[in-house]
UniProtKB/TrEMBL annotation:
Transmembrane segments: none annotated. InterPro entries: GerMN. This is Sporulation protein. Coiled coil: none annotated. It comes from Heyndrickxia ginsengihumi. Residues 86-175, 238-329 form the GerMN domain. The keyword Ubl conjugation does not apply. Keywords: Signal. Residues 1-22 form the signal peptide.
Length: 349
């Protein structure tokens, strides 16, 4: 049985979060660099530059905000172009700041009101200097702040690690609940996001994988990254991540998975030149799609987001019983591997 029984999911909204090219490929943009990227569109499978003044004056930026269920979630906004997009991104995380005019329903900002920020990036490390107002957050938000700041900044290619300080003094621990901070800097792996340690008996013998599930607020759907802990005895993180997608989120989480319970891989994932190839049984298609060989967006999109979160994986190719003759919800042949989107949870929903 699908985990979708836990919530109602409107598939058409998810379809709006991807671009379908004329050649049948679900084509996503590449990850941006810290310099504002050139805006692009996709026509017949080719990339063409847009030159409108509006696009030149904006930069697509992921802000990791807190949703109504307390999850840290990326939301993508077209922010004003800036010489320091990293600093601007953090400024948009401040309560009562410029983000208040664009916050989606059900979301709130992360950093305490009046917090001033400065960001210095050297050799892949972003050092964030907060003003004293940073100390005025609620204890229950401490881990969320760590996750939000780390994931917001590491969306930029030039930032691999994040360090924090207040008024020029490096933080060894967070100010309120004293959560320790790695002196070498925070990464997505070390910070985690929406960490789920349920069913983990010995966390010291585990390592993290991040998977993407679905959430809904009213008629709006979005992807939520969740860090799960898997045993160190499991050496194939791709296989482990797929198993976590099939297992689905915690029953009380208000998250859902589009994967049927009996979905499984027929053989170990194959990784070559940044592409991972997965061969699934027919259950990946769902009971209604086996004849048409259609793979739903609610399965394909979280699968791509999840696996491209892993180091070295840039694209995902899907097979069913060894066959590549699959189609998307739009009826396009899935003839090419799927790339990760440039941004997650874009403003179309």
């Amino acid at each position: 049985m699908s985990k979708r029984t836990k919530a109602t999911i409107a598939v058409t909204l998810i379809a709006s979060s991807v671009y379908l090219s004329g050649c049948g490929l679900i084509q996503f943009d590449k990850k941006e660099k810290i310099d504002p990227p050139q805006s692009v569109s996709y026509e017949n499978g080719k990339t063409t530059a847009k030159s409108t003044a509006a696009n030149k004056n904006q930069v697509q930026t992921e802000l990791y905000l807190i949703d109504k269920n307390g999850y840290v979630v990326p939301q993508t906004f077209a922010l004003p172009n800036s010489k320091s997009v990293a600093k601007q991104a953090l400024e948009y995380l401040v309560k009562d700041g410029p983000v208040e005019n664009i916050l989606p329903n059900g979301f709130r900002s992360v950093l305490p009101a009046n917090t001033q920020v400065d960001v210095d990036v050297k050799n892949g490390v972003a050092t964030v200097d907060f003003s004293k107002d940073f100390d005025h957050y609620k204890g229950e938000d401490e881990q969320k702040i760590i996750e939000s700041v780390t994931w917001t900044l590491t969306q930029f290619d030039s930032i691999k690690k994040v360090k924090m300080q207040v008024d020029g003094v490096a933080l060894k621990n967070m100010p309120v609940n004293k959560t320790p901070l790695n002196a070498d800097g925070l990464t997505r792996a070390s910070a985690g996001i929406n960490i789920d340690t349920n069913d983990v008996a010995d966390i010291t013998n585990t390592h993290p994988v991040t998977v993407y599930y679905l959430a809904q607020y009213g008629q709006t759907e979005y992807y939520v990254p969740v860090t799960r802990r898997i045993s160190n005895d499991e050496t194939n993180d791709v296989k482990a991540a797929v198993e976590q997608l099939v297992k689905g989120p915690d029953p009380g989480s208000n998250l859902v998975s589009g994967f049927m319970d009996d979905v499984s891989l027929l053989k170990n994932p194959q990784i070559k030149d940044g592409k991972v190839t997965l061969d699934f049984n027919k259950e990946i298609l769902g009971s209604l799609n086996k004849k048409t060989k259609m793979i739903s967006n609610e399965v394909l999109n979280p699968l791509v987001l999840t696996l491209t979160e892993q180091k070295g994986i840039k694209s995902v190719a899907v097979e069913v019983d060894g066959s590549t003759k699959l189609v998307t919800e739009n009826g396009k042949q899935l003839t090419e591997p799927v790339l990760r989107p440039e941004k997650v949870n874009t403003g179309s929903f």
